[in-house]
Design a protein that fits this description.
Blueprint: E1 6-10, E2 14-19, H1 30-45, E3 51-56, E4 61-63, H2 68-71, H3 76-95, E5 101-105, E6 108-110, H4 112-119, E7 122-126, E8 130-132, H5 146-154, H6 156-165, E9 169-170, H7 171-177, E10 182-184, H8 189-201, H9 205-217, H10 225-236, H11 240-250
Parallel strand pairs: 2-3, 3-5, 4-6, 5-7, 6-8, 7-10
Antiparallel strand pairs: 1-2, 8-9
Helix pairs in contact: 1-3, 3-4, 4-5, 5-6, 9-10
The structure holds coenzyme A.
Coenzyme A (COA) binds near residues 66 and 69.
Length: about 260
Amino acid sequence: MGYRNVLIEFDDDWGTIIINRPKKLNALNKETIAELHMAFKELNEDDEVRVIIITGSGDRAFVAGADIDEFADFDKDKGKKLSKKGQELLFDFVSNLKKPVIAAINGFALGGGLELAMASHIRVACDTAKMGLPEVSLGLIPGYGGTQRLPQLVGKGKAMEMIMTGTMISADDALKFGLVNHVVPEGELISFCEGLAKKISRNSPIAMGAAIKSINANFEDGVNGFKTEIEEFGNCFGTEDFKEGTAAFLEKRKPSF
Ligand code: COA
C-alpha cells in the first residue's frame, strides 16, 4: 500500500519503519497512526522480515507526541475514543506483535512518541535523545499506555515523578532508570539497531513470538504468566524450528530457521 507519512526500508532480515513528518517533528496524527498500523501489519506478515526497527525521519525527533492540533477542541467522549482507538491500532498492536520491534530513538520521544517506544520490545536511544511524558502541561495525562508501561519499566516512584513533572530526561538518565536498553552515539544509532536485529534474526522466529507472548502475559490482568509460559514452551516442541534447532546443536552446526 502507498503511505503518506511512513517509509519502509527492507534489509537482510529486517524491515525499518520510518515515521516521516519531520516538519511536525513526526507528531502522530490520526492518519499516521492508521498508516503505522498498516506498516507494522505488513512487516509482521512478511516471512522475509524477522525483526522490525521503528525510527523517526530527520535528526530532531523520534516522535514529539500525539498531534496536538488534532485534539485541541475535543470533549470527554472524543478523548476516550482517541485513546482507545490509538491503543488498539498502534500501541497494544505493536506490543503484541509476534516479531521483535526495536525502537531507535533518534531525538525527542515525547508523549505518544515515548509511549510508542515503550510499546516496542527493545529501546535504543542516541546520546542526544530527550524523553518525557509532558501531557500534564496540557491538562492531560498520557493516554497511549504511558501510565501503565512507564512504571513497568522504571518503577512506580520514577514514573510518578516523570509524569507529574512532565520534564524531559536525557538519554543517560533514561539508561540509568531502565527506560532504554542502550545509549549510543548519534551516528551509530541505526547500525547498532541493525546489529541487534542481525543477532535476533539468527534465532527461531517461532520461539521469538512465544517469548514475546509469555513475557507480555506477566503484565496482563487476569492472566497467569507462568501458565502461558508452560503452554508456549510445550507448543515449541511441536514446531519445525525445534527440530532444526536441536538437530543443529547435536550435529554441531548453525541452525537454519
Ligand atoms: N503536535 C503537533 N505539532 C507539533 C508537536 C505535537 N506534539 N510537536 C511539535 N510540533 C510542531 C510544532 O507545532 C512546529 O510546527 P510549525 O513549524 O508548523 O509551527 C514544529 O513541529 C516544530 O516544533 P517547534 O515547537 O517549533 O520546535 P522546537 O524545537 O521549538 O521545540 C519541542 C521542540 C519538542 C520541545 C516542542 O515542539 C514541543 O514541546 N512539542 C510538543 C510536545 C508535547 O507536548 N507532546 C505531547 C503531546 S500529547
